[in-house]
Specification:
Elements (H helix, E strand, L loop, with lengths): L1 H29 L16 H8 L3 H12 L2 E5 L2 E4 L2 H8 L30 H11 L5 H5 L2 H21 L3 E2 H18 L5 H4 L6 H15 L6 H4 L8 H21 L12 H11 L6 H15 L1 H16 L1 H16 L9 H5 L2 H13 L9 E2 L5 E3 L2 E3 L4 E3 L2 H4 L3 H4 L9 H8 L3 H5 L15 H18 E5 L9 E5 L1 E5 L2 E6 L4
Parallel strand pairs: 2-7
Antiparallel strand pairs: 1-2, 3-11, 4-7, 5-6, 8-11, 9-10
Helix pairs in contact: 7-8, 7-23, 8-14, 8-15, 10-12, 12-13, 12-14, 13-14, 15-16, 15-18, 15-23, 18-21
Bound molecules: protoporphyrin IX containing FE.
The site of protoporphyrin IX containing FE has 23 residues, from helix 14, helix 15 and helix 23.
Amino acid sequence: MLQHIDFSVVTVGIIGGAALIIYPLIQFILDPLRDIPGPFLARFTRLWYLIEIYKGSFELTEIELHKKYGSIVRIAPHEYSIDDVDAAKTIYGLGNSFPKARWYWTWMPPDPEKASLFADLNSTRHSIQRRKFASSYSMSSILGYEQFVDNCTSLLGQRFSEIAATGHMIDMQHWLQCYAFDVIGEITFSNRFGFLDMGEDNDGVFHAIDNKGFYSTLVGVFPWLHAWIFPFLPKTGGHSYILRYTTKQIAIREQALKDPKNTEREGPPDIMTKLLKAHEANPNKVSKMDLFIMCQSNIGAGSDTTSITLSSIFYHLMTHPESYNRLQTEIDDAAREGRISDPITFTEAQQLPYLQAVIKEALRIHPATGLMMPRIVPPQGATISGRFIPGGSTVGINAWVAHRNKSVYGSDADSWRPERWLEIDAAGRGADIERYFFAFGMGSRTCIGKNISLLEMSKLVPQLLRRFDFVLDEGVPRDKLKGLNRWFVKQLGFRGRVYARRMK
Ligand code: HEM
């Protein structure tokens, strides 16, 4: 009997092992695109991609792969990374964009009713949902959010004054993250989270969002695992703090709106108030779940992305004194000539060309997202970068790869040089470049919060450079900060000192 069991186990083991080797081999032999180059193991298994992402710097790996293999690179069986300007329109172009790949599924609960805008795999439902919320993120709404940004800018200024008086070294990325989170709290709920007040992430919210990125990024490589693992994920810690916080803020605002003495708050409404009013006007159109999901989306998608870009701005200014001086001079001149107020308005900040060039260059050289934005080729297939790719394959462009494309950005695409944007404008090439500028994504799934982030950055940077000088710690590398790619590519070890400026 025992011998019989042993024999069966061994047989099953041998057959299973053989299948694991033979299946990928057959799959590869039958693949009509087997000549598309890429790392050897990526031809047979998705494990190669998983391991490379786990290492935490896949954005750099992908750049190197394209340098070595050209415009189409295989990164897993039937999955291709693309670097081709025309392909951007084919894959992401408005009206005919390819649907999002199942990698995104792991960013939401497995129940499609709880899909966020970012993670929704159903293009039709996504466009219905997006139309409901778009007006709260439009340029005209944004101007109503200036006061929220000013509140946080002023508080960060206060914190930096205190730090400057002590002479202490700080983690710049941490403070910029506190700022970006609190601005999102203000714009969404008229109530900041309190990170700038406390100076720290007491409830582990930053950590919880990092953990979510780690989970979704890696499990997304094998998305079928999500339904099995999700029920066992911890329901405590930073995530539950955000859930509780969002629930509490919705209840407070709901109560306030019901009170006849208090139906209108002073000043422009925050996003949640707008959505709550839309819900009360037509609960079938804007549901409570919509409201909840959008508030959470703002926190998850809008805070780290902005703080990463702000860190990119300050790091590159601190390592490039000529850019730093040029920007500070532009701001000082504008202030002296009365062209900007204190605090600066968004409209005034638009009139500072070097500031705008610095923001674009920071988004270009260090995009907040560091993996390709994967899409599924529709059933009829598509020609991409000169190759016919069959339906069902996965293709995508990584912003890091696109932004280093020398045919678009010039031979110095690997270097920080904000002046390139002034040259692009002068040559009237802006619209052309937009076709391959991926910092905010592309097409129908482009970032809905782009205007909010531009508002935050355009207002914070001049206010800080007017009042403070920033100096990098000697131990911090000057050529490139270390980063960790978990979809968001967060900078690590960005230490510096802040000094109060002596006004001339
Ligand atoms: C510098 C700051 C930001 C950057 C670099 C950024 C980047 C991106 C990118 C690349 C995408 C497209 C992802 C894809 O196609 O896979 C995206 C989508 C999105 N972003 Fe942002 N984002 C920023 C700020 C914000 C802010 C402030 C908010 C909200 C307040 C926000 C909310 C969203 C949402 C909801 C989506 C999904 C849109 C959709 O699929 O319809 N983002 N963002």
